[in-house]
């Protein structure tokens, strides 16, 4: 078998152990003679898997019954619209603008014609850092994106506002421990396809009292309360995605949980940022205090060399290193499933490429 080293931004690497387990169970789930894709989402077998996955999420994030854990569809993108639709309460919704993904969320607030305010932004410097963010105590909610996938910036610690905090954690889901109480998190969500499985499932953790704000005019399928009341089974959920997500949760447990995963993630990030900082050939995009442990955006400051880097990396079985089209340059996405050894190989390649082209 020959597997490439996968530095793609999303969909992205899934742990090999997870893929192999899914493969082994693909036609015969737990010796029952059917695949998990082929049975009712309301049957015993799926129900058990589903509830186990929810329990694992609760355990990892240490959250109680005041939160609902939902597995939805429509991607993180649908959440941009669903959030104001459900939890805007007629006051002010505040947003921190740290890149394309928050811009898209802000656009949906605008379309819904709610009273929203952008209270912090790093747009004037092309989103190269996380600005200082302060939300009003009495805002309906304060909205952030914890990791900005394109620019490679990340909140090293989340804000702790008095108002409910809403977090788009699509690209750093399950990468570190988060204290929901300390940060007064009201809604925490992300698509699975960056750090937690295949595309098609969106994890939404929402405080039940926030979800209860929803107005009667909101269509039934777009209400969190509909899915809370039905334990995400108001309609057919993405059963295979939930299954894959559950296998990823097991894998994280085997690695020692979120704190162990975070330690490895810090080592991986230190390795590549040291590589960038120790040379004048490469330049990192994000300001040092805002650097992401998940996405590392950098460049040789020469578009042709960047292209050559991507091409030669591919020839050396490393994929996904082309920067996002908005930023250009290079990007290494080093999610949970990317190993320390993968990073060693990438850094060796970076040194060799610099030696030949520097
Ligand atoms: C990828 C991404 C999204 C969009 O996710 P979709 O599932 O494609 O809707 C939103 N926010 C962040 C931070 C992302 O990285």
UniProtKB/TrEMBL annotation:
Chief place of localization: cytoplasm
Cofactor descriptive note: Binds 1 pyridoxal phosphate per subunit.
Needed cofactors: pyridoxal 5'-phosphate
Subunit (UniProt): Homodimer.
Limits of the Aminotransferase class V domain: 4-346
Name of encoding gene: serC
Residues that coordinate or bind L-glutamate: 42
Protein name: Phosphoserine aminotransferase
Gene Ontology terms, MF aspect: O-phospho-L-serine:2-oxoglutarate aminotransferase activity
InterPro entries: Aminotrans_V_dom (IPR000192), Aminotrans_V_PyrdxlP_BS (IPR020578), Pser_aminoTfrase (IPR022278), PyrdxlP-dep_Trfase (IPR015424), PyrdxlP-dep_Trfase_major (IPR015421), PyrdxlP-dep_Trfase_small (IPR015422)
UniProt pathway: Cofactor biosynthesis; pyridoxine 5'-phosphate biosynthesis; pyridoxine 5'-phosphate from D-erythrose 4-phosphate: step 3/5; Amino-acid biosynthesis; L-serine biosynthesis; L-serine from 3-phospho-D-glycerate: step 2/3
Reaction(s) catalysed (UniProt annotation): 4-(phosphooxy)-L-threonine + 2-oxoglutarate = (R)-3-hydroxy-2-oxo-4-phosphooxybutanoate + L-glutamate; O-phospho-L-serine + 2-oxoglutarate = 3-phosphooxypyruvate + L-glutamate
Entry function: Catalyzes the reversible conversion of 3-phosphohydroxypyruvate to phosphoserine and of 3-hydroxy-2-oxo-4-phosphonooxybutanoate to phosphohydroxythreonine.
The protein's enzyme class: transferase
Gene3D superfamilies assigned to the protein according to its UniProt record, in alphabetical order: Aspartate Aminotransferase, domain 1 (3.90.1150.10), Type I PLP-dependent aspartate aminotransferase-like (Major domain) (3.40.640.10)
Sequence similarity: Belongs to the class-V pyridoxal-phosphate-dependent aminotransferase family. SerC subfamily.
């Amino acid at each position: 078998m020959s597997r490439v080293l996968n530095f793609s931004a999303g969909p992205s690497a899934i742990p090999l152990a997870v893929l192999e387990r899914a493969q082994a169970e693909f036609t015969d789930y737990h010796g029952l003679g059917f695949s998990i894709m082929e049975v009712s989402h309301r049957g015993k077998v799926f129900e058990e898997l589903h509830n186990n996955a929810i329990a694992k999420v609760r355990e990892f994030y240490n959250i109680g019954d005041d939160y609902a854990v939902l597995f939805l569809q429509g991607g993180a993108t649908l959440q941009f619209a669903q959030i104001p639709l459900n939890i805007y309460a007629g006051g002010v919704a505040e947003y921190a603008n740290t890149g394309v993904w928050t811009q898209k969320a802000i656009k949906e607030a605008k379309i819904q014609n709610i009273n929203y305010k952008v209270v912090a932004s790093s747009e004037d410097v092309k989103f190269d850092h996380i600005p200082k963010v302060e939300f009003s105590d009495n805002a309906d909610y304060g909205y952030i994106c914890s990791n900005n996938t394109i620019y490679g910036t990340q909140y090293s610690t989340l804000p702790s506002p008095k108002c409910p905090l809403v977090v788009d954690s699509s690209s750093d889901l399950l990468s570190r421990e988060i204290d929901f109480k300390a940060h007064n998190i009201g809604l925490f969500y992300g698509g699975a396809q960056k750090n937690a499985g295949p595309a098609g499932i969106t994890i939404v953790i929402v405080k039940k009292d926030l979800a209860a704000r929803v107005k009667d005019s909101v269509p039934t399928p777009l209400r969190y309360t509909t899915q809370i009341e039905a334990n995400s089974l108001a309609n057919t959920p993405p059963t295979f995605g939930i299954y894959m997500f559950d296998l990823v949760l097991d894998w994280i447990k085997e690695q020692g949980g979120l704190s162990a995963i975070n330690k490895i993630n810090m080592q991986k990030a230190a390795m590549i940022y040291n590589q960038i900082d120790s040379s004048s050939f490469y330049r990192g995009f994000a300001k040092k205090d805002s650097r992401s442990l998940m996405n590392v955006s950098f460049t040789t400051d020469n578009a042709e060399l960047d292209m050559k880097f991507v091409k030669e990396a591919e020839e050396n079985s490393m994929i996904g290193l082309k920067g996002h089209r908005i930023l250009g340059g290079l990007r290494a996405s080093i999610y949970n499933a990317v190993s320390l050894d993968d990073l060693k190989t990438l850094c060796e390649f970076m040194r060799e490429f610099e030696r030949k082209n520097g």
